[in-house]
Amino acid sequence: MNTVISAMSLDYPPHKLAVYISDDGGSLITLNAVREAWRFSRLWVPFCRKYGLNLRCPEAYFATQEKFEFDADRKILQERYREFQEALEKNSMNESKSVSRDHPPTIEVMTDDENKDSGLREMPLLVYVAREKRSGHPHHFKGGALNVLLRVSAVISNAPYFLVLDCDMYCHDPSSARQAMCYYLDPKHSPHIAWVQFPQKFRNMSEHDIYGGRLNNFLRAAYGVDGLRGTNLMGCNFFMKREAIYGTKNIQRGATLDQLKKLFGSSNEFIRAFMDKERYRPKMPEDRKPSDALQDELQLLASSSYDVGTQWGKVVGYRYFSVVEDAITSLELHCDGWISVYTNPANPCFLGASTNNLNDTLVQQTRWAFGLMQMGLSRFTPLIYGPLRMSILQSMWYGALVLDSLSTIPFYVLSIIPPICLLYCIPLYPQVSKQNNTHL
Predict the structure, then answer these.
(1) Which residues are catalytic?
(2) Residues at the annotated binding site?
(3) How far from 418 is each of 413, 426, 432, CA to CA, in Å?
(4) pTM score
(5) Tens digits of per-residue pLDDT, 41-67?
């Protein structure tokens, strides 16, 4: 929950900030944890703003031993944080830990009890989203979950930009949103920028990092392509322009409602939010208790069958073709003419936890390699699909990324052939005959 609380504490106008948490398991434990996080954030967010904290993740902040002028308030809030942690532990013990693969959609907007003073305008929105899952419908992994968040957020807040953050990351620098907006407000480049990518940095790395969890080689290469159309999406820690991910360049001028529904689905409210974004106002009451009509709309947008017969996952939203939805989505956006920005400030904007043991590293790398190779052996292979739509250098970058797993072949050869030759006394190199020996 530190991820959620740190995102709610960003240094940004609260009425323009909304946090959505996706729970694919539809677990009651997670829902109750989000409710507890909302109660604690009602104290934490005002505290951060009052004293201008630069570190707004509660776990990281209370781990520091520095002394502050406001130590009295800090100790009070630290006690509240301890109670918050105890409530989470109690919740995890009392509730069932089972996760159902078949469950209806659940969307809940966090708000205060009726008998409490509101002050909700000073707090960002916090929305829990558990999309519907049915065994008869493919769920499309992370890409499907992100597309549901796109649709649900469109009719609740409809912000023109959004941040994607994984649950193992937290906001380390509260000014990250403002830093990203500096690029989006550039009158020269803003119309072409689809996303602003921050690097993934980790707080749990050992000194030697024997499994390469820091991803240093990949992050260094990202600087090079920043001079082309930019680096690819890196899974999280990026601010995306909603207009870009909707695939606006694929919409014909004067498209009819039926044509739009074939692209975006049957929700009239969602189409209004997208097509009339300048005048559209989400129908969220001030008390943050959605009406029955809005709840019905949210249930429709989060249903497992909403994508069927539409272009979601093909030309709209995150692409479903590969399990590495970030790579295929960024490739298509770059091919559509969008550019991206890679920024790496001295103070990390986001920190997280990376794999630091062999088992976790193998699972992660296998998933990445499978998804990227799936792209490399399809019609989306960058060396063929890319040059017709973007520069050859940008295509070579994507080719190196997608086909990187082929480098394992020579490694396997070098690790298998020499031991076999040694076992069977087979010389690896030609022997020097005695006749050719020359004694000096």
Answers:
(1) 24, 326
(2) 24, 142, 166
(3) 8, 9, 19
(4) 0.87
(5) 999 999 989 888 888 888 888 888 767
